[in-house]
Amino acid sequence: MQNKHIIRDRCILLVLLLIFSIGTYSLFGNNKTINFLELADYQHRVKGQVKDSNGIPIPGVNVEIKGTSYGTFTDKEGYFYVDAAPTDVLILSYIGFKPLEVTVGTSKELSLALEEDVTNLEAVTVNAGYYTVKERERTGSIAKVTSEEIELQPIVSPLQSLEGRMAGVEVEQGSGITGLAPTIRIRGQNSLRNSRNDNGNYPLYIIDGIPIVSAPIQSPGTLTITGLDPLSTLNLNNIESIEVLKDADATAIYGSRGANGVVLITSKKGKLNQGKSSLEINMYSGISEVSNKMKLLNTRQYISMRKQAFENDGVIPTETNAPDLMVWDQNRYTDWQDVLFGGTAFANNINMAISSGNENTTYRIGGSYNKLGSVFPGDFDYNKLTANVNFSHKSDNNRFQLSFSANYGVDNNKVFNGANFVNYALSVPPNAPPIYKDDGSLNWENWTVDNPLAVLKQPQDIKTDNLLTNLNISYGIIKGLRFKISTGFSKLDNEDGIKYYKERYNPNRWERIKLGVNQNYSKRRSWILEPQIIFNQTYGKINIDALMGGTFQDNKSNFLSITANGYPDKSLMSNLNAAEEVRITNDANIHYRYAALFGRMGLNWYKKYFLNITGRRDGSSRFGSDRRFSNFWAIGGAWIFSGEKVIEENISFLSFGKLRASYGTTGSDQIPDYGFLDTYEATEGIGGLYPTQLFNPDYSWEVNKKIEASLQLGFLNDHFNMEVSWYRNRSSNQLVGYPLPAITGFTSVQANLPALVQNSGWEVLLNSMNLSSKNFSWQTSINMTIPKNKLLEFDNIDDTSYASQYRVGHPLNISFFYQYDGINQETGFYQIVDANEDGRYNNDDRVVIKNMGREYYGGINNHIRYKGLSLQFLFEYIKQFNGSHIFRATPPGFSGNKPVEFLEAWERPGDNENIQKVSQSFLAIDPFYNTANSTMGIEDASFLRLKNISLSYRLPKHILKKINVKSGQIYVHAQNLFTITSYKGLDPQGGSGVVPPLRTITCGIKVTL
Amino acid sequence: MKNTRHIIIIFFFFMQSSCENFVEVDVPDQKIVSETVFGSDEAANNAVIGIYNELFKADFSNGNFRSVTLLGGLSAGELQTTALNEEMIEFEESEILIENSYNLALWSSAYNIIYLCNAVIDGLRKYNGVSEEMKAKLMGEVQFVRAFVYFYLVNLYGKVPLIQSPDYRENALASRAEKTEIYEAIIDDLENAVAILGESYEGGERIRPNKYTAMALMARVYLFLEDWEKAETYSTQVINSTENYALLNDLDQVFLANSQEAIWQISPAGRALSVIPNEPRIFILTSAPPQSNQPTAITKKQLMLYSKKDIRSEYWLGVFPTDVKDYYYPTKYRIHDSEGIKEYSMVMRLAEQYFIRAEAKVHLENLTGAITDLDKIRERANLDLIMNLNSGITGEALLDSIQIERQRELFTEWGHRWLDIKRTGMAPKILSGTKTSWQDTDVLYPIPEEERSKNPNLTQNNGY
């Protein structure tokens, strides 16, 4: 009952919001009731031309009648036509130029000049999801990456383009395998559930208005175990912008799904071009290789270390205990990193798009093909094919508008199921036997472990195809009021199979090996329907921009997993029918439904004071019937104080100053479906039913309260801009798999945990136009984030299994370590402190707590332009720790290659080395592996990486004319060119267990015909 | 302006009302709700079949690496490890660490089966869709299974939490119940099962317990409680049910599916496509040790128990000769590859009932009766009968003979020997000689550390 009261109370809030919006409307609305159609009588057609300060016409300038959403774009000669009344004010905006407002007056022809804006701040509009706002006027925290920046990077996932470019957004590719889902955290980890199978920290992805399931696609392979990127099938060249919504003001309109932030991806639209079509071609080719390799022992060093170990232990090497000394060639040397992942991968990309448009209709049709080789030996690569259509139409009087977009992408990723692959590269002794026999087949003779290339004989083939369509129809009912309906459909099919060839095994086992495959099928279908009413009106100095709408969303997903065995021949392994035995190991269907009612009202007064109120009532099928709905809301405000006379007159160097703040709530329903139902499933054995989980009918929404304050300043005519933001997000009512002792029958149950997680931090953006002249400009932008994550409350944490994972008052991303205590001068082995002096080492002795998350991070971007030549380079920097590379290896003296640091091992008392005595006695094992979990086991993994560098040259006009090309550009792009770090493992981000990120250099050409 | 307001208001209420119903979704086709399960005889019956299926997958009962059979065999010294498997070695040496994952699996899987039982009992009580007749039968079977699991828990761990409802809110912080309380619950469950269950096996399949199965366990429980009269009564009833049971003279027949000797068996059909129990897969050596798939062999101590005449060593032991030494392994089960299911995993069989009755009779001072029962087993093993050898044997010596015979007969079946030496108090004497670091507290396995970290009310056994 009590719960119903709460719901009712919250309903009242929303109703109040509604009444408020209608009330305001009637208050101001009655003074000026001019019917839209009547107004048309006063209108006349205005022709205008827009040029830059050099008198060159600018195409594509957005021309809008102030206070309405009616507008047009200039054509390629800079002309526009618009029907407007003499009192109407036109707003012209274009990226890179200051916006211009002109009153139409009575003249029928206008000649207008836009002033170049040294920074982008003023002219840019940002997509806030259901509405757009001007960068200058926004009340929320929204970061943006544009197509120009995305296209600089030879990457596969759109999310990778955000790396280092946005404050408050952590993106990590993790490994050099193409197609994997990058990890993305917007303003930190909010949910305690952070595991691969159950994660409550994914942001919401929205592509052209359609929400996409953000969880990675499950994959069975060991190289792809972190999951596949659901966005990898997008064409990066077709993305107009990516916006990331961070604070309550921006995310509350997404209600329950906004807690972890929202990533909005907008695809390119056709441009007005007076009906003439243009063809854009962009193609590049390049090469990739792993960005780093570890320094390991060579054969001489390795053998001497091994001999030393036997000598130290007083053991005689024999063929069984030391094949590397007694059987194998003592002079052979193989660089296993080079053999296993030292290859060069070729990258090729071609993208084409035709676009055209007149005042009523624009379209853009494009396609792309992308192929990336692999750095592994063998036949592995990544292929992507995409097609996209965008079509917009509006009626002559602008009342009816329609837009349609479709993105289709297919990719095929060929990898292999390479368990231990990287580990092999680092640990196989350098004098191990040859990898191939003379006939080219794998050599197994004398190998004491599996031939490291054997895993290549378990090829994995991943195919995904993805269709996203979106249709928007709107109709202006009366002036200032528009009805809009937005619908979308998305479909993703993934097939992921691993084949196990017999060559994967030692030939002496071939007779007993059955050829087998492991095949997974994932399907995701979703549709969304969002009717909306949009209201926009200006009353004197006050402008109201409001919308109200509803969401109906339906997601179906299916996961099917099949294993099949006993194929008569390798060539038949794609056909299940050829298998002796086929088994369905998983077949799960999930149906998720979501409904919401939302509203937003933006008010601005004198373009100086801004208020933005948003609210949303959400319902989700993931909760029991009593807990299904919840309300979320936010309020944001901004004050452009530089617009105040006092400031304008007294502080002349201040060209822009804005204060903004927001507060609100969002939520999360990112939990497994159906947890509230008391259900049975079929047992694996025939005819049986059994409950597979504990059920809890009572769990409810996670609540995330966000507060933010920010100061934006522009100096010296906006040559220098800065923005400093402080935020604090608090997630309570944590929805977790609440750990239970097994005596309850299971080890967890879905429940709300009384825990409070806080993410707070500072974000700083600096943008400086260091030099600017007609031919030369140099612009630097810097972003920096100092995140603080803290578990504020967690009652009785010691009674839960989280006790060994989290600690109240500390960040979530912590690890517990033993205190390292140097090398025991008697034994020569590592020692650690037995904190409670009970004579053994266990969790109670792990008393040192270290934050393994980022201490601070950011990016430094420079853009230097000289005439047609443009150079951009982006550094990404992160301050953090990672596991030490030393303990990826076996203890010094044991079989297996080692980092070169192992050369400096302890030898006699008094030695002050970092590596324990070379020995392969069993006494050496525990000290070594315990120390791996001590303060000695982590290393400073801070780095500064040249994430991206790009040099491009815009072909001069006279050449273009000769070859009859509208514009042309040649470029060189490079990714991960170098990294400055003291970390000695493979990669400071991925550690030493995964393939390091690839270094890629590409050359390309972009022309418009 | 009125129009605008009307439009907005109508829109608002239209949306509001349509949202509420929209988020209702159907139960997905891979799940059915409890109400439906206990809404018909057939589905409720399937929920109980599910328990028997799961018994073949549950670690403690599946005869695999973490089963009572293997771990109990190691603890008792029937089996030894031949490959490096740290967690098994801890059982072999009775030096089990509290973090031992095999121990956690043993414990957790047993409680998972208890949950399945409690859920069925709860469902049968809560919903009314099942006929009274079916309800009683299912209740009896499930209570039997629950009693069976508790029997092992209390014998392996001593005091354990007594969980009798599926409600995790109550159970999560349960304390350990006294052993007497657990035995009372076991007897309660078994009495009900004995009263309700029918006398025959359904469809001739010995997978689902009947009245005699419950009695057989009752006899064992009373033997452990040293209530000799009841132990004798119940075992006699089982032995007298000759329409159900007989000792099979051909030792090759004993472990076959639904053999006349079987009182209760678990079918490998509990896992899709598996046609053989786990025991033959893990015991029968297919290549020379050490190898991780078959990490154990019969100990010398066990091997020494058999005289040349004893045909059990011929039928139930196999040998894998190597240059270094001969490895022996149990062959009670054979590998019958892809020919359909031939063997079920034996849980209880008639031979044990003879032992129970013999032992009870000794204590009730009916030595002749005891000798007769023991000789039944000896006769089948082709051993000389005690009746002939030494009919004036003392009670104490006879008890020793019974224990030795149990060892020879019941090895590698559900940890009989481990439980026997514990209940008779012989464990310290026997094991301190063979296990270097033996402590008398090692007779109980540790409560898994992970359980104690999640439930602070769980105390640890002494010595850990």
TrEMBL record, chain A:
The keyword Cell inner membrane does not apply. Its main location: membrane. It comes from the Bacteria. Residues 135-262 form the TonB-dependent receptor plug domain. GO terms for cellular component: cell outer membrane. It holds the Pfam family CarbopepD_reg_2. Keywords: Cell outer membrane, Membrane, Receptor, Transmembrane, Transmembrane beta strand, Transmembrane helix, Transport. PROSITE patterns: TONB_DEPENDENT_REC_3. The chain crosses the membrane at residues 12-28. It is a multi-pass membrane protein. It is found in: Cell outer membrane. Belongs to the TonB-dependent receptor family. This is TonB-dependent outer membrane receptor.
